[in-house]
Please model this.
Amino acid sequence: MDLNLDLEKIELQESELILPKFDFEIAWQIGARLRDIGITRRFPIVVDVRYFGQPLFYSALPGSVPDNAEWIRRKSNTVARFHRSSYRVGLTLQQAGTTLLDRFALASTDYASHGGVFPVHVKDAGVIGSIGVSGLPQRDDHELVVEALCLTLNRDYASLALPKA
Model:
């Protein structure tokens, strides 16, 4: 995996996957879509969609564990802090050879720079929430959210997918 290629593609994903609006119903639809994908593919995941500070959709699928909810919370805090995907934050830190604790004094008890939570960016409003998945390897968590957003926005996922690892 080439960090630079992944970072470039994630920046593109974040700039392209902007919702025209976001409300409780849209949050439910995105969450339900992720849940349906998870059930169909038998992924042991937790799905979480939220306004910052307010959960809107949550589902734990068979095989997931309580720690997945904790990972979602910590990754969501990272997205709320930086308005970037948790995977992008993690890869950027990895590239710089540092950590959230060393660079920003953010404790791992409350923040995680692992993939799986993506910012909810709304046109003319900015980043107002997050969509998260936990339970797969971090790159796969990230890509599952991107895939669901592409479906929601009628975008071609193949053109926005990360390069094959």
User: Anything to note?
Assistant: The mean pLDDT is 97. The two ends are 5 Å apart (CA to CA). The chain has one domain: 3-154.
